[in-house]
Amino acid sequence: MSRTLTIPRPDDWHLHLRDGAVLRAVLPETARHFGRAIVMPNLVPPVVTGADAAAYRDRIMTVLPDGMDFTPLMTLYLTEETDPADVAAAHASGLVTAVKLYPAGATTNSASGVRDFDRVRPVLEKMAEIGMPLCVHGEVTDTEIDIFDREAVFIDRVLDPLRRATPGLRVVMEHITTQQGVDYVTSNPENLGATITTHHLVINRNHILVGGIKPHYYCLPVAKREEHRLALRHAATSGDARFFLGTDSAPHTDPNKESACGCAGCFTATNTLSILAEVFEQENALDRLAGFASENGPAFYGLPVSTDTITLTKGDPVAYPPKIDTGDGPVTLFDPQMPLHWHVT
Length: 345
Ligand code: NCD
Ligand code: ZN
Prior knowledge:
Layout: E1 4-8, E2 11-15, H1 20-31, E3 36-39, H2 50-63, E4 71-77, H3 84-92, E5 96-101, H4 121-130, E6 134-136, H5 150-165, E7 171-173, H6 179-186, E8 192-196, H7 205-209, H8 226-236, E9 243-245, H9 254-257, H10 272-282, H11 289-301, E10 309-314, E11 323-326, E12 329-332, E13 342-344
Helix pairs in contact: 3-4
The chain binds N-carbamoyl-L-aspartate and zinc ion.
Residues 14, 16, 40, 248, 250 line the site of zinc ion.
């Protein structure tokens, strides 16, 4: 029996599109299903100024295939040299939607991130004043903190003090991976939201490490214990509008993943919606998929929900290609290790 579900066209509130040949190859994978995406600025060199963001947006729009309708929502990479006036001007002109905070060294291409949070206080204050959201990669980088604890420690040591120091600031905790992340969001006021990735609803740390190391399941923040995966599934399917989809689809070519020092990132743009439908169905929450994927994000960002729709139809398993080709080499698609029955049209 086929079932269908029609929802407003979804958006992706945390996406890596890269540049050059990889951008050209991955952009259609997102634009096929999603109307908008918050585009991460961690290029090399990073997207730091309004001028950088304008140039990157042009490069994205240049390779968007004819007939595809997609709006990149640009972000700026916060550095200790970021100029509050440049940020405010880029936001006022509609060019830039949010600013991204990476603690220096926390993840892929984050060397220019913030070490001394006092040095970015004027930017955060300006953002609070103009209502511009801060997207936060919430992990400490101290070598003595266990990698599985870095999100929880970040909340206590960095995020909570930062929010108290700048009370009006709208903050998105990006790609939360822990019960502590969920609890921090639910116990705080409405100016705090969180994105949850597709893959963190599916894998726990065993998927990375049991039976041989699986580089394509390695991402940052790293997947945690099963109890945390369950907390994320509960939050995503709860109907709480503070949780919304940010795939963190982060393509790296196979040689860069399958390496003695492999890059962090799961590439999920292509099959995300089929996976999410499967997960929400497993949780008896298909009626909440629209909230998570299409409505809660725009509400947090103060943008309209899409007036377009997509339809998911349940049928025989969908055959997604295991890899996509790019001019720089193949990129492996995230394997959810379960049949996906929901087709997207
Ligand atoms: C991201 C990337 O590859 O740019 N990697 C990842 O594992 N998620 C960076 C990030 O969002 O942390
Ligand atoms: Zn990311």
